[in-house]
Specification:
The chain has 6 helices and 7 strands, in the order βαβαβαβαββααβ. The protein is of the alpha/beta class. Strands 3-2-1-4-5-7-6 form a 7-stranded mixed β-sheet, sandwiched between helices. The protein is globular.
Length: about 230
């Protein structure tokens, strides 16, 4: 069982979108699981063994556990099989809060991952089913931004990740085959650092990560806001 589950299409998606937030959650005592729908391979400069080793190290740096499902990279579709596989994991992990990819993107796997994750949240509560585990419905679902398309969308909230941004950058550095060794992606980590500074500036902190709610957000008191 975990407090929070974060779903991504590929290893490194979750770290790109909300790695610092995860580090902060863990630092404050919450338990977090990263669930990759695919193993991310093939890629131009990787192997499955390398990618799994890098993903395991990145999760360890952030303090999260990691689960890798069996869906195919590059051919990820919102199917009943994919929904069921993820729903069973959600029934096992039983998170209170679920983070899913942003719905709009140029990468078809990312848009499919969003649809799969939202549907799996619903599937996970089924009672009359052959799925393993007991019914469970994550109370809250939020989208994180890790997209290929150059998008700026007004977030529902921005988390102050000033203290935890270094952990995110350390976790991203674990993906050596995807970033440092890949000239096409060599500037990604620097770009993400600049984005974190931009989002932070919008809420008057040094670094931030944006999130997008699918449902209204309730707060107990206005002083809870930064």
């Amino acid at each position: 069982m975990v407090d929070v589950a974060c779903v991504g299409a590929h290893p490194d998606d979750v770290e790109i979108g909300m790695g610092a937030t995860i580090a902060g959650l863990v630092r404050r005592g919450l338990t977090v699981a990263i669930v990759d729908l695919t193993d991310g391979e093939p890629t131009p400069r990787g192997t499955r063994e390398t990618r799994m080793r890098e993903a395991a190290l990145a999760a360890e740096i952030l303090g999260a556990e990691r689960v890798t499902l069996s869906q195919p990279n590059r051919y990820l579709f919102d199917t009943a099989e994919a929904r069921t596989e993820l729903a069973e994991v959600l029934r096992d992990l039983r998170p209170r809060t679920l983070f899913v990819p942003f719905a709009e993107d140029a990468h078809p796997d990312h848009t499919a991952a969003h649809a799969i994750a939202v549907a799996a949240r619903f599937y996970a509560k089924f009672t009359k089913t052959q799925m393993r585990g007991e019914p469970h419905y994550p109370e809250r679902v939020y989208q994180y931004m890790a997209v290929h398309r150059r998008l700026l969308r007004e977030p529902s909230f921005v988390i102050d990740v000033t203290e935890d941004l270094p952990k995110k950058l350390e976790a991203l550095a674990a993906y050596e085959s995807q970033f440092q060794s890949n000239p096409a992606n060599a500037d990604v980590v620097g770009m993400l650092t600049e984005f974190a500074r931009m989002w932070g500036a919008l809420v008057r902190v040094e670094a931030g990560e944006p999130f997008y709610a699918l449902e209204p957000i309730g707060i107990r008191a206005v002083e809870d806001l930064v």
